[in-house]
Amino acid sequence: MTRGQKENKSSRRDSSLTSRRRRVPQSSRRFASPLITLLTDFGTRDHFVAAVKGVILGLNPQARLVDITHEIPPQDIEAAAFTLLAACSSFPAGSIHVAVVDPGVGSSRRAILIDAGEQLFVGPDNGIFSYVCDTRAGAKIFHLTNTKYFRNPVSATFNGRDVFAPVAAALSNGVKPNVLGTKITDYVRLQPLKPEASKRGRLKGRIIHIDRFGNCITNITPKDLTAETIAAGAKLKVKGKLVESFKNYFAEKTDRQEKIFAIWGSAGFLEIVAANQSAAQLLNTRRGEPVVVSVG
Q1: Residue 65, beta-bridge partner list
Q2: pTM, two decimal places
Q3: Which of 110, 205, 268, 269 is the most exposed place for a label (fewest CB within 10 A)?
């Protein structure tokens, strides 16, 4: 083989290698594994979060883990349900969400997997996924029964590590939901998100979450309370207090300068707030308090 033939052969090999490389987008090579998010009431002082992450990474070293929060108040399922709903829409299709606030751990409560909105949710069947299912039609629920994918032995006090973490890892490795369990049609649900409409044209909502700033987040959405209704003179009543001012952002200057006003929050719900103060403290209110909308 002449020198020129060797150079041509080498050139063809380099060209073929370049062509093969071009077939796989850089982003696909870099992000081969889905995101796995973690939401718990474990806190960060103990070993719990690290143990969950260790199990996932042991089964899929390429997993990309994102902490939503580990500061849910202990056993507060409703706070977890709202926080998960508010966060999950920011993640791409294919994301796997592990949510563990589990006061019933070790009991007969089921471990479940939910396939909803091109994302997967893994955790206890105690209502933690209620709000996600309320807002995503066509959710498929699976009771996790295939113990082959659990850690052995399974602790009666730490299913986050021994059941939910390995199941999330299996999903990230391509295992299908129907392999991990059996499809069911029932699951534990919290009070529905949708407000109640009264015969007198009023809308009865409720406070579903109070954030660290004291903003009172209601279950009222723009579909329930339209811009036209607000323009017609909508008023909110909570704890005997009328809220008549609606703003677009906290520092907005309007003709009405009430201390407490309403604003559309980033999670898509109407919030009752106070600029640079806690509306919850000013109103002496808490989660679950009714919020009544009337017009005129």
Answers
A1: 36
A2: 0.85
A3: 268
